[in-house]
Design brief:
The protein is of the alpha+beta class. It is 26% helix and 25% strand. It contains two helices and four strands, in the order βαβαββ. The longest helix is centred in the first third of the chain and has 15 residues.
C-alpha cells in the first residue's frame, strides 16, 4: 500500500470484548460502525492496532485492512499454561491500515 498525503487519519486502538460476550460478532459490529462513521466524517485512512490473531484475520478478511507491520512477541503464549486461554492467540502485534475512498 502506498500512502499519499492525507489530512484525516483515525486510529482504532486495540478492540476488546469481555470474555463472556466473545464469538457473537460484537467486535465486527463495532468495527463496522466505526468505519462508517469515519467515512461520514471525512476520514481518509484508518489505522488499527491488533494483538489478537483472530482480530487480525477478521479485519483483513471482513473489512479490507492491510497488515503493514507486525512485531512477534518473544514469549510463545499459545502453549503457556499460566496464561488465560483467551490471551494465548496473542502471538504478535500488528498495525493494520484501511484506506477509505
Amino acid at each position: 500500500m502506498t500512502f499519499d498525503r492525507v489530512d484525516k487519519v483515525l486510529l482504532i486502538h486495540i478492540t476488546s470484548v469481555c470474555p463472556e460476550y466473545t464469538r457473537r460478532g460484537l467486535a465486527n459490529r463495532m468495527t463496522d460502525v466505526v468505519l462508517k462513521e469515519a467515512k461520514n466524517r471525512g476520514y481518509k485512512l484508518v489505522v488499527s492496532e491488533s494483538t489478537s490473531n483472530y482480530t487480525q484475520r477478521s479485519k483483513i478478511k471482513n473489512f479490507g485492512f492491510e497488515n503493514v507491520f507486525e512485531l512477534h512477541f518473544n514469549n510463545d503464549l499459545t502453549t503457556a499454561t499460566d496464561i488465560p486461554e483467551e490471551l494465548r492467540s496473542h502471538t504478535k502485534g500488528c498495525l493494520l491500515v484501511k484506506r477509505l475512498d
